[in-house]
Design goal:
Elements lengths: L3 E7 L13 E6 L2 E7 L3 H7 L7 E5 L5 H4 L2 H10 L6 E5 L2 H13 L7 E5 L7 E4 L3 E7 L7 E7 L5 E2 L1 H6 L7 H5 L4 E2 L5 E2 L1 H4 E2 L6 E5 L8 H4 L5 E5 L7 H6 L5 H11 L3 E5 L9 H8 L5 E3 L5 E3 L2
Parallel strand pairs: 3-4, 4-5, 5-6, 14-15, 15-16, 16-17
Antiparallel strand pairs: 1-2, 1-18, 2-3, 7-8, 8-9, 9-14, 10-13, 11-12
Helix pairs in contact: 10-11
Length: 305
């Protein structure tokens, strides 16, 4: 099975600490690399994770708070110094485009690769990226600035061929695609060999949803229903629920409620407030509602399956 992994580069919130970096992840899916958010220090974290700068093909920014985007211009500059030539695609709220153009003009004159900006309408749930193997959708969230999450979905693949059956019936290579697309095979003697005997099902498509930052949204589970892995911000514990509401964030319990109602496979918690020296209180709070919950931490890699 092709890899589908989440590399955690940063899982802290806005206040800098010595324990966590600001928000950033790399989604590795079918040999493609996509970054989600780019807080300060992200390019250093890329090096620590041994992720090749040249393989990153797009960056998705949820919103324009500094802990989610202030690392972007430095990373673009470094890509230029490393001799990047391939275009880099940026998906973000419209407001970032003019700011980014100004920063590039000031800090990266003569950049020898193209930065292609794609404005994301944060109030719409829609497909914003598509290729042969996956789609990426925007997920409207509710924060103090326009903000959205992102949903990565593999496309279904065709069934796999049973090579021993193909060889046994001496089926020509020219017929393989027809069989993958559901055709039966008729032997020279007139025997019909059903498609089910010639193939076995492909693995079901996998999905990953990234939701940060947002206040608790009772309807959010409908947009991430059944995803294999959900990352949901868990800035506070229940004792600080009023603070979460004030600053448009969520508690770990609220993140777990979304995971439970969406019937996801696994919940990843992150975007921790700097007030916590030990996030185990957040993990336990989430596990009480959704047992298959996990804390993210810099350097961890989670398989989506």
């Amino acid at each position: 099975m092709e890899p589908f992994r989440i590399h955690i580069l940063g899982c802290g919130s806005a206040m800098p600490t010595l324990r966590h970096h600001p928000s950033s992840q790399v989604v590795e899916i079918r040999e493609k690399l996509f970054m989600v958010d780019c807080g300060e220090g992200t390019q250093v974290q890329l090096r620590r994770a041994k992720i090749k700068f040249t393989k990153l093909q797009a960056v998705f920014i949820t919103h324009l708070h500094g802990d989610h985007c202030l690392g972007l211009i430095g990373m673009l500059s470094t890509f230029g110094m490393l001799g990047r030539t391939a275009p880099l695609h940026i998906y973000a709220p419209q407001t970032l485009e003019a700011l980014l153009q100004t920063q590039i003009a000031v800090f990266c004159p003569g950049l020898e690769y193209e930065v292609k900006f794609h404005a994301v309408e944060t109030t719409q749930h829609q497909v914003i990226y598509e290729d042969r193997s996956l789609t990426i959708e925007s997920i409207p969230l509710a924060h103090r600035l326009p903000c959205c999450g992102f949903l990565f979905r593999e496309k279904p693949v065709l069934p796999h061929i049973r090579r021993e059956m193909i060889d046994f019936y001496e089926i020509p290579v020219s017929q393989i695609n027809n069989i993958k697309n559901g055709a039966d095979w008729t032997t020279p003697e007139g025997e019909i060999v059903s498609n089910q005997r010639l193939t076995y099902p492909a693995a079901p498509p996998r999905s990953y949803a990234y939701c940060s930052d947002t206040r608790y949204l009772p309807h959010l589970h409908q947009l991430v229903q059944g995803v294999d892995t959900l990352y949901h911000e868990a800035t506070y514990d229940q004792e600080n629920e009023s603070r979460a509401e004030m600053f448009a964030h969520s508690t770990a319990a609220q993140a777990a409620m979304v995971a439970r109602d969406a019937k996801v496979g696994k919940l990843l918690l992150g975007h921790y407030s700097a007030r916590y020296d030990d996030e185990s209180v957040l993990l336990q709070e989430a596990k009480n509602i959704f047992p298959n919950s996990f804390l993210t931490d810099e350097g961890l890699v989670f398989d989506v399956k």
